[in-house]
């Protein structure tokens, strides 16, 4: 049986959350971003994109292109809560779910069709539930391979879905080479220099020629161009680790944005640890740069923890050892070497630490009122503090993250 893979991607995720939560923004051009002079655009609604506004461009430039746009400070707590609701919907169908970021995932529904219908029916039902229960638009692509499903969801935007026919190579053939995974500006320049403007042209090229000019990457691109992508959907359910990892829509060099993003990831990992009833002794930081090189750093703790703030401090200590001045494509924080309660409990258990009592209280509040009800002061200060609660509810900032691409 051919694989059935669905790629679901939220449409302009952060901007859509802002429009959902503030009726005055609906239908208007919206920019989610930082400081008007020093910051960059984190997300752009579809209404503002015709003016040339895209994620990662300087805010000053964005406001020149669209001076009439509404500018909204980012609120990570709201985005994290929406993400958790969306992924709960994904996991209500028993496929393999591979998260790629807060707002997108691959789902392998090959073995779910008997119970849940055809892949297009499953995708449509998921999107309808996301719209009804979370109040946000999403798009989906369906294909036998991950690469094609991702492209199909991009082509279906906004708020649509597209199924790739059985002949994946024929679907890919007319698309520009820039659509190939791994083709950035430099690789695109090489391919165009070879006279290869479309994916079909790459598929028809002598693979030895690609190998000569691009090395192993040339062989990889040749396989993708012919619709060959055997990579499985890998669920984020490893018992030995828990992590939060996001690939940015555009490369990021701003240290403050990276710091904010790492903080949000650490807090997400802490919540997941507490939900699972486990703690970690090892914190791992992952950073991938714009040239696709990656590094990891690890720290072993003196005592196990499930406290997101503790994870954040360790992650920042590790990040301080990362070479500065390079644009970053991806960051991730993960907890390794997990453990539950020890088999033999002490006769007199010590009273919970202050941080543990605080986390328990915050978790109870989040369960009842949502994760944006309470957040940390250092993240709140990045958003307007005087009227933010009246406008949106308290939140915290983060980067616009998604695979090498997109803002949805």
How many H/I helical runs? 16
The helix content is: 25-40%
Radius of gyration: 22 Å
Annotation, overall tally of beta strands: 12
Estimated structural class:
alpha+beta
Mean pLDDT: 82
CATH superfamily of the domain at 241-345: DNA polymerase, Y-family, little finger domain
**Unreliable stretches, pLDDT < 50, 5 or more residues?**
341-351, 369-374, 377-408
Which sheet architecture does the biggest sheet show? 5 strands, mixed
If you consult CATH, what is the topology of the domain at 241-345? Answer: Dna Ligase, domain 1
The assigned CATH architecture of the domain at 241-345 is 2-Layer Sandwich
Overall geometric form:
globular
Q: Going across the biggest sheet, name each strand in turn.
A: 5-6-1-7-8
How would you sum up this structure, described in words?
The chain is globular, with a radius of gyration of 22 Å. 39% of the residues lie in helices and 21% in strands. The chain has 408 residues and is α+β, with helices and mostly antiparallel strands. It has helices spanning 13-21, 59-65, 76-90, 113-116, 119-134, 146-156, 168-172, 185-193, 199-204, 207-214, 216-225, 255-276, 308-319, 354-369, 377-380, 388-391, and strands spanning 5-10, 30-33, 41-44, 70-72, 96-101, 104-108, 138-143, 161-163, 241-252, 279-289, 294-305, 328-339. Helix 6 (146-156) links the parallel strand 7 (138-143) and strand 8 (161-163). The strands form 3 sheets. Strands 5-6-1-7-8 form a 5-stranded mixed β-sheet. Among the domains are: 169-225, DNA polymerase, domain 1 (Orthogonal Bundle), CATH 1.10.150; 241-345, Dna Ligase, domain 1 (2-Layer Sandwich), CATH 3.30.1490.100. The model is unreliable at 341-351, 369-374 and 377-408 (pLDDT under 50).
């Amino acid at each position: 049986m051919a694989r059935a893979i669905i790629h679901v991607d939220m449409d302009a995720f952060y901007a859509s959350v802002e429009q959902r939560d503030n009726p005055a923004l609906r239908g208007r051009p919206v920019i989610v971003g930082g400081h008007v002079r020093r910051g960059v655009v984190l997300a752009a609604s579809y209404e503002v994109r015709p003016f040339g506004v895209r994620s990662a461009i300087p805010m000053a430039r964005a406001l020149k292109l669209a001076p009439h746009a509404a500018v909204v400070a980012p609120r990570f707590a709201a985005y994290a809560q929406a993400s958790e609701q969306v992924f709960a919907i994904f996991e209500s169908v028993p496929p393999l779910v591979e998260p790629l970021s807060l707002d997108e995932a691959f789902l392998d529904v090959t073995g779910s069709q008997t119970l849940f219908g055809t892949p297009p029916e499953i995708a449509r039902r998921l999107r309808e539930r996301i719209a009804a229960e979370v109040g946000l638009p999403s798009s989906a692509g369906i294909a036998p391979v991950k690469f094609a499903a991702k492209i199909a969801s991009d082509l279906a935007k906004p708020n649509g879905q597209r199924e790739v026919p059985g002949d994946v190579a024929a679907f890919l053939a007319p698309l520009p080479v820039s659509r190939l995974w791994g083709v950035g500006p430099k690789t695109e320049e090489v391919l165009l220099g070879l006279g290869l403007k479309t994916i079909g042209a790459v598929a028809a090229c002598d693979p030895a020629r690609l190998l000569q000019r691009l090395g192993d990457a040339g062989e990889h691109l040749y396989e993708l161009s012919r619709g060959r992508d055997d990579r499985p959907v890998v669920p984020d359910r490893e018992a030995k680790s828990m992590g939060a990892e996001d690939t940015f829509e555009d490369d990021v060099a701003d240290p403050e944005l990276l710091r904010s993003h790492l903080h949000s990831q650490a807090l997400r990992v802490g919540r997941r640890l507490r939900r699972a009833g486990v703690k970690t002794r090892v914190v791992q930081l992952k950073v991938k740069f714009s040239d696709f090189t990656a590094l990891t750093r690890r720290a072993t703790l003196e005592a196990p923890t499930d406290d997101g703030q503790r994870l954040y401090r360790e992650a920042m200590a590790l990040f301080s050892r990362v070479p500065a001045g390079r644009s970053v494509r991806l960051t991730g924080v993960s907890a390794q070497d997990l453990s539950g309660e020890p088999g033999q409990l002490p006769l007199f258990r010590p009273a919970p630490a202050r941080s543990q009592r605080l986390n328990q209280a915050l978790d109870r509040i989040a369960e009842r009122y949502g994760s944006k009800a309470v957040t940390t002061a250092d993240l709140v200060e990045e958003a307007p503090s005087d009227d933010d609660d009246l406008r949106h509810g308290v939140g915290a900032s983060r980067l616009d993250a998604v695979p090498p691409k997109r803002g949805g």
